[in-house]
Amino acid sequence: MQVTVKEACSSGFVRLNVGDTLVTVKVSSPDGTNSQVYTIMITREQIPLAVTFCEMKDQMEFECPVSLSALYRPVSINQSDPKAIFSAPYIDMLTRRSKVHPFTDRPLGDSWKVPEGQLDKRMSSTSVKCFFAHRGCKSVLKLAEIGAHAKDCPNRPPVNLDTKEVTETNWYKKHFTSSRNLEIETKHSLQVRNWEKRLQTAVGRGQYRRLVQSC
């Protein structure tokens, strides 16, 4: 029996993408007269840390517009102009109840979701910085390899992190020691909605019926 994986001998290895990797396995009889092709979809778990691309152009291309982080299992909306690409978990969440384009509110037809396998493959080979670059790690790796590196990175913080290891660093003192150092200005606005007003007026024992009737 002969086994061929992705047009290579079975003794080799298959490099997995960050999200989905489609692997074809061809099994042939010893004389080669019979063969069967199997397809296997391998999905890696999403990395729970923020990814920093080395090049700005890569960040612009491979950033999900919803999560503002690296695309994970990217899919595009069929016939969208300009082409809209999202991480699969987020577009699934946004279209769970209403099948409309999240930005234009255009109804989505049948087969609207298009997997972007080639984009996932290109993104997996893109150079990124180590998750712990702020702790001194200078390593630059391919996105598909950064997860394995993070497990053994010498700059990885300990499980029981001492707060001084954060507050005494230069980057923390530069950006967070005072409100004047904050690079992002945050403005807050207070809005009281109608249901909140009704809730505030329904105070005291036995007022739940009044609240329910006003909703």
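[next item in queue]
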Amino acid sequence: MHRCKAADALLSQMVMENDYEIIIISEQYKKKERGTWLEDSSSTAAIWLPPGSNGATVSNGNGNGFVWAKWEIFTVISCYLTPSDSTQAFQEKLDNIKDTARTIEGQLIIAGDLNARAVEWGMPNTDSRGKRILEMAARLGLIVLSEETTPDITLSTERMAGSINNWKVLEDYTGSDHQYISFMIDTGRIAHQLSKYSGTRKWNISKLDTSKLIAAIDEQNPSSDPSLIARKPVEHTMRNITKACKKSMPKATHSKRKAAVYWWTENIAALRRTCLRLRRSYTRSRRRGAAPQEAEQYKAAKKELKHAIDDSKKKKWEDINRNPWGLGYKIVMKKLGARAKLPDVTAAKMEHIVTAEIPQFTLEELQVATGKLKANKSPARTGSQQKSSK
């Protein structure tokens, strides 16, 4: 995110629009207050689980330049290795990541901006840092998932790679000098793989006799049509499951309306689209040679978008000051995780609550309260002070 304020704001909107559940971040702007936030010891790499993210982590940890979170069936390590590190410092951080990865059991994803070049992730050449990363990947049994030219690397265990789909570099305007990457994790397939290879299995799959298996299935499902041997029991089972689901639960409904952060407006959405269009134009022009005009237009558009976001936030907070039980109350309740209803208070009743005098306590109430205090237990006095005060 290049520690960019605008990128931080646009990320929140992008997450809400697309229902992303795990956000792997390099060079974060600041800690997100909502959801679960984990970051490394130098605050340069983070993992963010926004509100509504499915599944809780079972453990987590961090080091210098990396942070990790473990779910039941896989672990994610988010990394950022600064380009200013010396070769020795870079190798030390990489060794720490490798040592941590070795202690984590199960399937693994390592992702982030490692500021390294390698042909394996689309670069024209492989530099020293790239070679060191590839060496680490080989030792850990990781493969490169990156399918397009990008400085941001995605590695995973080979079995995990089979459960990762739709890896792609997003075209959305991010406000950063990097484009975001998204991919889908098929947790059902991972769980199947785990059960298939777990130590508690009842059969030794390596000694499977395929011909005997087919014969046994044929005996249980006799049919003149071989294609129906497996199909019939599957169809029968699925029909029973469907009937049970219809009786026990309603169908899910999905709203087509996309969520938005509190300060989002149609104008800001239009400015984001303009930035995306001008960035593409600038990129194409730069490939052909110098592009001073396109660069200035793109720079001006980014500045306008940043100001629009700041102005919208300021205006919303001015509205909050005028109506404390409106948007401001809702934002605070969301951050607290509360789902309380707005209080039904009239303007006159609110005025009375604010201006009414609170009656002072009586001498009798004071004596009752002080009588409940234990002797020599005042936290504001030392032992010698307590003794001299008797």
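[queue empty]
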